Every structure is written in structure tokens, then in C-alpha cells.
Amino acid sequence: MELDISNDSLPVYKALASDVRLKIIELLSNESINVKELAIRLGLSTTITLRHLQILADAGIITFKKEGHSKISKVKIDLISIRFPQKIYSPFELHESAIPVGQYTDYSVQPTCGLAGRKDFIGKVDSPSFFMDPDRFKAQMLWFSKGFVEYQAPNFLTNEDNLEMLDLSAELGSEFPFSNNVWPSDITCYINGKELCTWTSPGDFSDIRGKYTPSWVPDNVNQYGILKTFRVTKDGTYLDGQPVSDITLDDINITTPSIKIRFAIKDKAKNQGGCTIYGHGFGNYDQDIKLSLYYS
């Protein structure tokens, strides 16, 4: 589950702001427990225990199921991350490009794979041939198990401009038939053919619906990813603000009319769990792939 600092995330924060509910999560993380047994372990009445459980359920942290005459509680997530707004404190000028998910210029993918738009799937699912369907430009989400997709963004820098920093952001996740919240995948990012770094996605999420995912998408398939920001500076490459490699701006040769961006699952990757890319109208972030060039 991924949170931000908007009011939409308040139910989760409120649910966690209780030592009793934290203890409930700790107990349920080890086993599923019926309400009566949980109340005994907590030293509380069944009524009060149910009240705490309902708050956790309303926040999407736990779920209930019936076993005979008993109501069983269990934790439905194993990770909560919080994304804070980023602000660039710099006097740099900015060229920014938004690249639709379906506007790739090269690809090589293997099933499971497919494309989805605002109203339906585009072409046949699990058929790589449809990645050349003319309607692919309407895709706002795509997925593949192995291979890569490559995009090109315009380079509007002139000879007089001095590139100071490059940011690439995209909402990414793993790929599993339907979904699997625990399905690690090593997704590698390249700029102009230069490998920046590899990020391991923890899963292919459907524990809750994506904030912007269209209603036609079933609940049990990919719903959202995690917004990742790859930053290249004159000193190295960073992923979400943390240093990850020694690749610098000098290494990626930003002198061509266009800038190539590639997301890939390597053949020899330890975790070959596929890749899903979410764009405008899908997932938790209403954005396409975004390339930002900061210059002086």
C-alpha cells in the first residue's frame, strides 16, 4: 500500500495511531485469529475489539472472512510506503516532456503481456504482435514478463544550454497473471543505451484499487505501481534521492536530437518478475512517463 500526505490517506494514519491497533496488526501478522480469541489476548471486550478491527478494515489494512460461526481477521498488506512531495530548490531552467505509455519506439516483449486504454484492452492480451497495433498510442498501461520497451523524448537543449540534472519518473510495478502482491522483479532503466540502475519492484499490486484505474479493470488484476524517480547529475545517479551508481551526465551523452529511455527485464536478472508501466488515467499517479531536463 502506498500513501501520500493528502486527506485520502488519513484513514490509514488514524488506524495506525493506536497502540491497541498496532498490537492487533502484530498478532495478525503471525496468524489469522477469530474475534473472541483476539479479545482474550488483548484483554478487551469483544465489542471494543470489533471496533478496533473495523477501523483497521476501513483503512484497508485487514480483512475479514467467515469460518463456520467465527469471524476471522487477517492482515491483507505487508508493506506501507509514504511518498512526500518533492521540491527542487534550484535556479535552473526546465524542459519537461510527458511521454504516453503507448508511445514507445522500440520493444521486444514476451507474454504475459498486453496494453490497456481508458475503456478496454487494446488488441489481444498475451500476443506481442499487438504491440505494433496502430491503436497502441492510446495505451495508458502496458505490461510484459520479459524483454523491454523503449521510448524517445525530444531534446530541446541548445548548444548554449548547460545540462545540470536529469530526472526521469514513472509509475512501475511487477507483472504477474492477474496479480501477486509479493512478486519481486528487477526492472532496469537505461538512458541513451547507458544502464543507470536496477530497481526491484516488490510486487504486482491489487490489494486496493488504483486511485485513477478505470472502473472496467477487474479488482483482481494490476491496480497501481510505485512512482520511481531516476536522477542523473554531474556526480552520479540517484533513485528516489539515494545514490545507486556512478553514472553521470557525461556518461549518457545528451547531445542527440532525442533521448532514449528504456525499461527492461534482463535475461539474467535474479528476479524476472516482469514489468508494468502505468500512465495517465491508471494507477495512483495521474501522469505519463516524465522526463525533466534542468539546465543553466
TrEMBL record:
Q: Which CDD domains match?
A: HTH_ARSR
UniProt keywords, alphabetically: DNA-binding, Transcription, Transcription regulation
Give this protein's Gene Ontology molecular function annotations: DNA binding; DNA-binding transcription factor activity
**Leader sequence residues:** none
An example Pfam family from this entry, by short name, is HTH_5
Matching PANTHER family, A to Z?
TRANSCRIPTIONAL REGULATOR, ARSR FAMILY, TRANSCRIPTIONAL REPRESSOR SDPR
The chain positions of domain HTH arsR-type read 1-95
UniProt-recorded name of the protein: ArsR family transcriptional regulator
